[in-house]
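Thread: "does anyone have the structure for this chain?"

Original post by V.I.:
We have the sequence but no experimental structure in hand. Need at least a predicted one for the grant figures.
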Amino acid sequence: MTILKNISQYKNQIGKNIKKNLLIAGASISVFCWFQSILDIAGAPREITFLCEGCTSTIFGFPHPNGLAIEPQFMANLLLAPIFLSLFYLFEGSKKQDQKLNPSPYPESKVGRALCYGLPLFLIATLYLTLSRGAIFSFWGGIFILFIYKTVEILKQKAYILKDLIRQSLLFSAVVFLPLFFTLSAQGVFTELGPTTHTFLDGVSTSINQLSLGRIDLAKIFHKNSENNRINKASELNEQLSSDPKRNPASSVPKNPQFTGYIAESTEIRLNLNHLALSSWQTSFSRLFDGVGLGAAGPTLYKEFPELGSPKEIIQNEYLAILYEQGICGAVVLLLSAVLLVLIYKQYNKKHEKSAIYGRVLILAFALTLCFFSGLPNALHIYLLPILFF
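Reply from O.Q.:
Generated one for you, tokens below.
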């Protein structure tokens, strides 16, 4: 806690450079993610693209990059901090009182204004490109809370309420949907140009089906069109293969992607592990209060449910993992620590109320991401970011 207090006291001195560096790092890694995708579509091997095994275009028809992280979900979670920081400068940067307390990291020029508007959209588009539902849903949750806060702020004004509400609604809609439409189009193009037989419409349909958890299936709507395009593309690929004597026909036969939409099995496996953990946790009072011990979730679950097949299976929900491994005592300690952190954060951000709101929204978004995976110690650096940036 002493470290947190010191960071809060001196964040004005260190904050400016850190915020600027964060935006530069976010933009750089986003460019790298798009570069990874383009290289993958061009046929570059994984040794060059640095894509993980399950990230290439053979999975969905288009790549979903992991940047320099192990998996796309970690890359996406790392993007949340620069996204909300860039949104702060987009929504609040023009106000004089905020410029004094939080000077803009962008240059005062046309280029700076273009970056102020364009960088958030680019970062969010990259978030969508990762296809990490946990991070994307958490971003949507955070942006919704921010929208509610800004709406209440406008309603407290005495004049121009309707005009400001319309302007704000349009701005928030643009922030959420423009990058989504851009990324969907890019995924469609990647699918069309990629090594599989799927087409532009297939790529867009696959992405939407995955993000909507199988609720929206455009493939059924465009079935005939998509099928004809797929046949045409397959014949074109076959012609290219037959005209290229140097290429090995056996290894270059055009194939369908492994998945064409929402992977229900992935969700069912996670929900089943959560259910088994809760069932096991309730078997004794000792487990209820003390848990099974740190790091013992996998071996304990495997011992009681051998059908899992491996003691390395983990509970893909950090809150349930804490409850199962550390019991009610651990959960209470976590809750008290979170409350204490919020109180300290609030105490040292009285002069920076505007930026503090964005920091709280970011913390909320990070808290939501933990509902979709566990292994907090492996990604702790991600969740320490709000303390420095806001």
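V.I.: this helps a lot. The mean pLDDT is 83.
O.Q.: and The chain has one domain: 2-262+348-389.
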